[in-house]
Amino acid sequence: MNDISQKAEILLSSSKPVPKTYVPKLGKGDVKDKFEAMQRAREERNQRRSRDEKQRRKEQYIREREWNRRKQEIKEMLASDDEEEVSSKVEKAYVPKLTGTVKGRFAEMEKQRQEEQRKRTEEERRRRIEQDMLEKRKIQRELAKRAEQKCATALSFR
């Protein structure tokens, strides 16, 4: 009897799932021991099932929290891009002071031409930089959207 109960304990404590129809053979007329063995097997199955379910819920919670964090980062990045839009100011043109002599006027006009040339080159450089920044933001937005879509599809498969 002791040998049979040891075998039953080994079977019940093994990591393999015990079939529901399994009843250890202990001996004829020993209904109480059969009932207790089935009760223990049932309790162990329930404990294992609840432990697995708890682990699954925990992993799902962690995945959702990570997804929400990524989503929030992407939203913040997109919102910060909208706030950084540069408003261009209209600058007043330089009006040179007229001098009385022709030589003075030509010198003044030459200075004005050089100043306008410098402003044009600076404005062109500023426009190029602004265009580059806009392209970079556009690329970042696309990458953020792709990352968001990739995360969404990855979560939908789980």
Automatic annotation (TrEMBL):
It comes from the Eukaryota. Residues 1-63, 105-131 are annotated as: Disordered. Residues 27-63 have a biased composition (Basic and acidic residues). This is Nexilin F-actin binding protein.
